[in-house]
Amino acid sequence: MINHQKMKNITTLLLIITIFTLLSFPTSTEADYVAKLCPNTATFTPNSTFQSNLNRLLSALSSNANRSTGFYNATVQTTNNAVYGLFLCRGDVVGTDACETCVATAIAEAPQRCSFKKQVVIWYDDCMLRYSNESFFSTAPQLNPLYMWDMDNATDQTRFNQVVAASMNEVATEAANDADKFATKKENVSDLIHLYILGQCTQDLSATACRRCFSFAIAEWQICCSGKLAVRLLHPSCNVRYAIYPFYNATAPEPAPGAPPPPPKGKSKIPTVTVVAIVVPISVSVLLIVVGYCCITRRARKKYNQAAADEPSGDNDITTVGALQFDFAAIQAATSNFSDDHKLGEGGFGKVYKGILSNGQEVAVKRLSRNSDQGTEGFKNEMVLVAKLQHRNLVRLLGFCLEGQEKILIYEFVPNKSLDCFLFDPERQGQLDWSRRYKIISGITRGIMYLHEDSRLRIIHRDLKASNILLNGEMHPKISDFGMARIFGVDQTQANTNRIVGTFGYMSPEYVRHGHFSVKSDLYSFGVLMLEIISGKKNSEFFHTDATENLMSHAWKLWRDGAPLELLDPCLRDFYSRTEVIRCIHIGLLCVQEVPADRPTMQSVVLMLSSYSLTLPSPQQPAFFLQSRAMGNMSEATLDSTQSISKSSPSVYEGSITEVYPR
Question: Which residues 6+ apart lie within 8 Å of 46 measured at CB?
């Protein structure tokens, strides 16, 4: 027999385990922020009529947050100041407190996260909120979605991608035809791997518009994220998500047909002590299994790395020093002891070699100059940070080698070298037709936006130029060479330096004059690069023919005189899109304006390129930096006692790969 003290101990143990289990589940009442989209192209002033109408709209949305459909749209309109808005809760949380909490959080936070913006989309785990000064109801614009991915790849990618593609299409079809525009699906990839898929559209869309929206998202997945174990695709009108762990609330299964009825009520003939002796161990076992499952699931979710949200929550430390570090002997063998036959190029940071690892993988090996004074631990930590930057338009760092005085970086190998090898070569520039150049521009914008807004770090590249844009086998662009990059804290917007580094002709005026750099200085460099891609001419070429003009001033004069198409590379004159070319010139001129605040953000540039319905502001006269012929023959000219700048095409080495600013 079990005495009363043992019974008390068992009961206490069961209570402790139960409390521990309950604490293992998330209990926060706050919604989990995911991402936002709020371009600078449309803003309002404080205390304006628009703000008053926006407050009324948000109030109307808030008062309807408990609707059984989990969806509501509304309009507040006065003369020339209409505001359109809606919220949408995830289909599996409709009718729960989570939906109301999420909508309330979104309504409270959106005006702060997107201050004074007229066009806002903000996503949380359980809902989304959208408002705009333009009507968007019942439409799904042709926009590429924001996306997030898990850093891990499927082992059998062919099988995994087949299952994902088929499942996403099935979910898309089911959701498009569903009254609530919501569907989920569980599919087995293998005996051990299960796939969970969710798709949802805003309920104002027709079945056709909803399916079309899903097609934009699925097409983006094929480009950005195939093979990834967890992906989230966010479009203002729909979203698709999948993972190999359950992330939505599945409907409880109904009893199987023919299941036996519950036992009749009455006294049990089994002794109480026997019941306790049987039930308690089973309960403890079940609870321990649940606790273990929760820990595993939570750990898997923490690995979920977002590549399109600008304020990721939590730390992602799955990349470690040990996983990235290569042996020097292995690098020597891969490059035939750094032989000239393997050399791909040489710059201010050192030489670059092609290498073939022991597993047959081709890599690019950058052997840094030995004059870097960065410490060993700082170098290791920095490499771990940079390796976490993963985007299809960034060259991926695979690892590093650090032995003695050797500091070596190992990157993915990109076969078509750099953009300048095609763009400025009369014999090869014809391979870059307008369609390809437009895709290159779009790819570069996405890569820079990831650096500026969407990665876990805010990175200022500081050396964007044609020779730092590599082209893969499909001629897709990949931004490379982070040797001058600076890592900003989340809330940091600008920094200063006493030594100016970069490439003359690409550097912004505030950087050259005062050492100020920010995301807007990268925008200036991007604007110069964009005009070079359109014209097929180097900015520096103008200095050799006319010391009073550069590419920006030439483009500005053509724009001012109403002849922007004369800037277009002559080899493209027969086949191009007039609308796309003029819009790209317009955006390029906006990026090279002298005042940093007048330049758009990269997020705005992405929106400008993808939506022709947006009216772009008129560009102001660009900043002119005119180099005399005497200066053109100098390798370096001193600006003052502390600032120097390279006037030749190679970039100047500042002494570290990046400089990390504390948050």
Answer: 116
Annotation marks residue 340 as catalytic: no
Cα 462 from Cα 502, distance rounded (Å): 7
637 has a pLDDT exceeding 80: no
3-state secondary structure of 619: coil
Residue 34 C-alpha from the chain's centroid:
12
Integer CA distances (angstroms), 323 to 75, 369, 398, in order: 53, 24, 9
Confidence of residue 463 (pLDDT cuts 50, 70, 90): confident
The DSSP 8-state label assigned to residue 314 in this structure reads S
- Residue 417 confidence (pLDDT): 87
Annotated catalytic residue, options 150, 454, 463, 522: 463
CB 118 within 8 A of CB 101: no
DSSP string for 66-81 = T-TTSEEEEEE--TT-
Distance separating alpha carbons of residues 250 and 90, to the nearest angstrom: 12
Between CA 588 and CA 605 the distance in angstroms is 9
For residue 373, CA distances in Å to 410, 458, 646 come to 20, 24, 21
**428-450 per-position pLDDT tens digit:** 988 999 999 999 999 999 999 98
Q: What is the Cα–Cα distance from 97 to 110, expressed in whole angstroms?
A: 20
DSSP state at residue 339: -
Query: Which pTM does this prediction carry?
Result: 0.51
Residue in this structure with the two tokens 């393997």, named with its chain if needed: 342
Nearest by Cα to 486 from 458, 506, 511, 464: 458
DSSP 454: I
DSSP symbols for 628-644: PHHHHT-SEEESSSS-E
pLDDT tens string 182-239: 999 999 998 888 999 999 999 999 999 999 999 989 988 988 888 889 999 999 999 9
Report the Cα–Cα distance between both ends of the chain, in Å, rounded. 62
Cα radius of gyration rounded to whole Å, the chain: 29
Cα dist from 61 to 76, 314, 501, whole Å: 11, 30, 50
Q: Domains (ranges, CATH) in the chain?
A: 33-132 (3.30.430.20), 321-412 (3.30.200.20), 419-660 (1.10.510.10)
How large a percentage of the chain has pLDDT more than 90? 40
Q: Cα dihedral sign for 606, 553, 524, 530? A: positive
